[in-house]
Amino acid sequence: MKLSDCTALIRSKNAGPFSLTYDIMFSDEATYQHVKRSGVITSEAMAEKIGCDVNDIKFFVCDNALAFKFTIPRLLPAGDPADADLHGGQQFAPLMDIEVPELSK
Amino acid sequence: MRKFSRQSRLSVVSCPHNEAAELALTESVKFVCSSGAVGSGIHLPAFRAAMERQPDFVASDAGTIDAGPYHLGVGKGAYATEALRHDLEILLTEVPKGTPVLVGSADTAGGDPHVDRTLDIIKDIVSQHGLKRRIAVIRSELDPAMLQNAYDDGRVVALDHAPALDRDGIGRSTRIVGMMGVEPLQEALQEDVDFILAGRCSDSALFAALPIMRGIPEGLAWHAGKIVECGTLTCETYGKGAMFGELFADHGIITPVGEGLRCTPQSVASHSLYENGDPYLHRESSGTLDITDAQFEQHDPVSVRISGARYIPADRPSIKLEGVEFAGYQSMLMGGIRDPFIIRQFDKWLAEVKDDVRQRAARLLGDVLSPKDWRIDTHAYGHNAVMGAREPSHAHPPHEIGLAFCLSAPTQELANKLAELSRQPLLHHPIPEWSGSITGFACLFNQAHVERGPYWRFSMHHVLLPTPDETVFRREILTLG
Description:
heterodimer, A: alpha+beta, 4-stranded antiparallel sheet, B: Alpha-Beta Plaits, 11-stranded mixed sheet, 22 strands, about 30% helix, about 25% strand, AtuA_N (chain B), Acyclic terpene utilisation N-terminal domain-containing protein (chain B), DUF4387 domain-containing protein (chain A), DUF4387 (chain A)
């Protein structure tokens, strides 16, 4: 099962002009806990998936929001002539394909 | 009931509160958020339904740094005048006199021209409807000379990932705004005004200012503001409507008003992630909102009960600075490439085209344009344009590539000249597979280039540590009508 098959929303967005933040959110507790237990969403795994230094990641497990979150530096400031995503909204796609073990029935 | 739990906790700080004010709190404080942004469109039926709940105040922010450096630089916001007027007219005519309306981050960026443009629209509406309003205008544009002095004193401090900044960089900034917290709003509210128009302002502060004055604990007031400031984005599914909040001594109720809208503990908790680098700690001018131990419960089918947020006062205020520096003018060509021979050697082809443009520029414009004063930026759609160096997918070569070829120079005239020099290489740069003259670029426009106009870059991501006697925000009270 892919991560995008079991999430409510995977998104990216600016957190200020110099940081990008990613949210992986679930709509039910059982799936969230399953993915959390599976251990596929970690600081190290996200760094590798996004292509950034693991030391640059701030990683959060948000039980209350049924969500994982991490924040990284932007490659370029928002609005730079070489930046192609002013709002940082289309940077999450590589996370969609992360393989999650099937939920046991 | 769900509680945030964080793996590494801060040391616990007791919830600060004003005991005298809390003792005086006998009633709840009610408010309406008219929409996520002034100019984005107030949904009138929902707004009227929310107003029937007789709020103590109405608030909405009107801006965001997320719109990029352009609006702060150019001095004009992202919304059409008609859209601003539509929303301001509702705020001025549908809210009874005596119920304060707070609007912050005027016209997207909150600089003086943004405040002025909004104020002109307000004056026009007040006059047209024969209203009488006392309006506080709080400006947040900062004097670069004052900031240079603060810099010399070591009172301009970089935030994470801030660009390099020095004294000259402050002087070069086109416009700098400071983000106000609750204090300037509270001072204005004490002047018995009907409407506050603020420059750059913390979104949450617009909702926290009055409840804190009435004795609501700061953590709860800020938390409620944080939840509602984006309007119905905090609902399970975003839709047309307004947000209503009611705050008591130890909890608050957040209610969406609009057909089909619903808040759940998960939707409200999740909203604290949105656009924030840290889901738990939200830094404000006077302190930090800590929602590590916040609690969210379903109160009724659509409302959520919140409690448990803390506010940790800062040792001294820090005012976030947003500054932009003029970067030049742009002109761009846009077009497509469909030839598979070009596509299979795209990076090499593009590098050669750019090199050809650079050589032509050196030959023809070398006396007026040194290489360090202009630049080419390309965005090749279909070929890692959106994610750039972080694009992991290279499995399937695209069958066509859209190319934005952008030239930046100190004047529009020079940017246009560079674009004109770029057209021939883009069209006709040869590849080994074909003999004879090729045309390898499908121009989207005629004329081939588009003037992009001026552009700016963020020059600051810093805070100012003001001295107690330093005037940062400037307030005036106007009596209109």
